[in-house]
Structures are given as structure tokens and as C-alpha cells.
Amino acid sequence: MERNTWGRGPQARRGDVLPTAVARALGTSRQAAEAALWGPKNLANRCARVIAALKAAGADEALVRFIQPIDLAIHSAQPAALSGDERLGATPVPSREIAQAYLDRLYEDLALCAALRSALGASHALF
Question: Which domain holds residue 105?
Fold first, then answer.
């Protein structure tokens, strides 16, 4: 009997190689990889919370350092096109152009915040 892995939707197939590949990449067990992919504290959701916290704290340099490896991995990935039925869950997957536009805006916002912070710091240093 196959088990449902973390509410991922359809029952996981025995031949599902994704958790095995992720386990190898993370140096962990297949079960831990399944939790990292689809568990309630999965890596994607945790990264999203870290990004939101860094942005809210105004930690622009830390945010860039955190996002850069993710951004590089996204750019190097060449995912196959998915049909609507194959997409994970009901969440629509944004196109590569939309995702890149979002990242570009984020980097522009960070550069603007850093420039404003520098300008404000310079003006306060004069007094």
C-alpha cells in the first residue's frame, strides 16, 4: 500500500525518484527529503519566511546573500514544460519571465533601499 506523502496530492509512487535525488543532494534520508519537499515545514515555505523576515528587518545585504544561491539555481535549471494536470497542487507556476521580473524588481528595490540608507546615513553624519 502506498502512502500519501505530506498531503502532496496523489499517492506517491514507489518509483518517485525526486525524494531519492533530494536525499542524495542533502546528504539525508529519503524520508527527511520528503519532509523537506512536502512537509508542513518544507524548505520552500521556510525560505519564503526567511526572505520576508530579512526584508522586514531591512537586512538588504543579508537578503541578497540569501537569495543569490537560489537565484543562480533557478537560472541554471532547465525544467521541462508541464501540462496543467502535471503541476504540483493547484498553485499556478509562474513563467520564467514573470519570475525573473519579480527577482529583478526585488534586486532594484534592495539597491534603492541601500542607496536611501546610505544617503540618510551621510546626511545624519554631517550633524
Answer: 59-79+92-127
Read off the pTM. Answer: 0.51
75, 96: one domain: yes
The answer to the question of residue 9 being in a domain is no
Residue 69 lies inside a defined structural domain of this protein: yes
Which set of grid coordinates corresponds to residue 103? 527577482
Whether residue 10 lies inside any domain: the answer is no
CA torsion, ordered 48, 16, 69, 88, to nearest 10 deg: -40
- Would you say 67 and 51 are in contact if contact means Cβ atoms under 8 Å apart? yes
Kindly give the confidence (pLDDT) of every residue in the chain, 127 residues in length, as a single tens digit, with 9 standing for 90 and above: 344 455 554 445 545 788 999 999 989 999 999 999 989 889 999 999 999 999 899 898 899 889 888 888 887 776 666 555 555 555 566 677 777 787 788 888 888 877 777 777 765 554 4
